[in-house]
Design a protein that fits this description.
This protein has helices at about 15-30, 65-80, 95-100, and strands at about 1-10, 35-45, 50-60, 85-95. It has about 110 residues and is α+β, with helices and mostly antiparallel strands. The radius of gyration is 16 Å and the shape is globular. The two termini are about 15 Å apart.
Length: about 110
């Protein structure tokens, strides 16, 4: 299973703008659990004092390209009008899938 890890950073004084933009995004782009199922959304702070939001999602089989495209579109939508908005998106393998790449079975943990 592939995992999507998304991080966005923005100034604290832009928090309500980003939150409102996210709600707007969801109105026209409802979640599609067969494409990307949200596992967690967490909020923290960056060392620079910015708000840091983590998103972790489970990517549906064969949906990696679609998820990257959708997530990039979402981040560009959120960034509109938000000065110093930054984002990073990564597709990773879960523990057992990573071992499969090595031709091994993951140890029980």
């Amino acid at each position: 299973m592939a995992i999507l890890i998304s991080r966005i950073w923005f100034p604290p004084d832009q928090s309500s703008k980003v939150a409102k933009r996210y709600v707007e995004w969801l109105k026209d782009n409802p979640p599609q659990p067969d494409v990307d199922k949200t596992l967690a959304i967490a909020i923290s702070s960056a060392e620079t004092g910015e708000v840091l939001v983590y998103g972790v999602g489970q990517i549906g089989k064969g949906k990696e390209k679609e998820v990257l495209l959708n997530t990039t579109k979402q981040n560009l939508f959120l960034a509109a009008g938000i000065e110093n908005f930054r984002y990073k998106v990564e597709v990773t393998l879960d523990f057992s899938e990573a071992y499969k790449v090595l031709g091994m079975t993951a140890p029980e943990i």
